[in-house]
Amino acid sequence: MKNISIEERAINLAHYIIDSKDTVRGAARKFGISKSTVHKDVSERLLKINPALAHEVRIILNENKAERHIRGGMATKLKYSHEKEE
Predict the structure, then answer these.
(1) In contact, 54 and 10? CB cutoff 8 Å
(2) Pair 1, 33: CB distance under 8 Å
(3) 1 belongs to a structural domain
(4) Is 56's pLDDT higher than 90?
(5) What is the number of domains present in the chain?
(6) How far is CA 26 from CA 17, 33, 51, in A?
(7) What's the predicted TM-score (pTM) here?
C-alpha cells in the first residue's frame, strides 16, 4: 500500500470492508495500517471523495458496532471454556 494515494487507499479500504463485511481492525490488519488510519479514511476522507460509497461503509460499520458486544461475550465464553477443560 506504499505507492498509492490516500484517496485510492480510502476507496480500496471501503470496497474491502463492503465486500468482506470485516471490522476496522480486520481491515487494518489486512492492509498493514493502523485502525485509526482505516477509521479516518472511511469515515472522514471517503465522505469527501465518494459520499455514496462512504454511506455504504457506514452501514457495515454500524452493524459491526451493534454486534461488538456479542463478539466480546463469545470470546470471553470461549476463553473460560478452555480453562474448565484443563
Answers:
(1) no
(2) yes
(3) no
(4) yes
(5) 1
(6) 9, 10, 23
(7) 0.79
Q: How many CB atoms lie within 10 A of CB 24?
A: 23
Q: Has residue 19 been placed in a domain?
A: yes
In a domain, 59, yes or no: yes
The pLDDT score that the predictor gives to residue 24 is: 94
CA-closest candidate to residue 44, choices 69, 75, 9, 16: 9
pLDDT in tens, 9-42: 999 999 999 999 999 999 999 999 999 999 999 9
Judged on CB neighbours under 10 Å (0-12, 13-18, 19+), 78 is exposed
For residue 61, give its domain range.
6-85
In the chain, the largest separation of any two C-alpha atoms, in whole Å, equals 53
Task: Work out the number of other CB atoms within 10 angstroms of the CB of residue 25.
Answer: 13
